[in-house]
Design brief:
- The protein is an alpha+beta fold.
- It has three helices and nine strands.
- The two termini are 15 Å apart.
């Protein structure tokens, strides 16, 4: 649950209570009625194809052995397809074009809804913004998927292309990190 402590309407304390069958933060003042609904955050994700292979990346804050797709928050007023193109440019230094929307996936652990796209990237991978520690190519017929979050988009896109990707067993260090990741706010 969110770490908010005070009502943004009247500044009274927020308290956890069941509302519509889910425990939510709500204002403690009887005449306020504010409920913090904690709506999911929209995030774009890109299955990037570059030089005929898929590009996977490791965030600089992630442990070795953990990798994923290029992702980023949807900015106010931004179209999702434009956002994923922007993220690919910022994180990989590639000029990209969206070919398809792969799907929409819930990522409850981070309270996000993922809008996943397939893109073709052009240029040389440079990691210009420092958010990524590394990026690497994987042949489509060798690509594995992780059983959650953006991994499901990788699985679905590969299957749509006639491949039979297998789930990837996560290393123990990654499992431990996922169980208690550092605060990245």
């Amino acid at each position: 649950m969110d770490r908010r402590r005070f009502c943004p309407v009247c500044a009274s304390a927020l308290v956890a209570r069941p509302i519509a069958g889910i425990e939510r933060l709500a204002c403690s003042a009887p005449d306020c009625g504010h409920v913090f609904w904690d709506n999911p955050i929209p995030v774009v994700a890109g299955v990037v194809e570059h030089e005929g292979q898929l590009v996977f990346a490791r965030n600089a804050r992630w442990p070795k052995g953990m990798y994923g797709l290029v992702t980023g928050f949807l900015e106010p007023g931004e179209e999702p397809a434009e956002a994923v193109i922007r993220e690919v440019a910022e994180e990989l230094g590639l000029v990209a074009e969206v070919t398809t929307l792969i799907g929409v996936y819930g990522f409850a652990r981070k309270n996000q809804v993922l809008l996943a796209y397939h893109l073709i990237g052009h240029g040389e991978i440079t990691l210009p913004d420092g958010e990524l520690a590394e990026a690497f190519h994987v042949a489509k017929n060798k690509a594995e998927y992780w059983p959650g979050g953006t991994g499901l988009a990788v699985r679905d896109w590969l299957r749509s292309q006639g491949y039979d990707p297998q789930p990837r067993e996560l290393p123990e260090t990654v499992k431990a990190w996922l169980a208690a990741p550092p605060d990245m706010d």
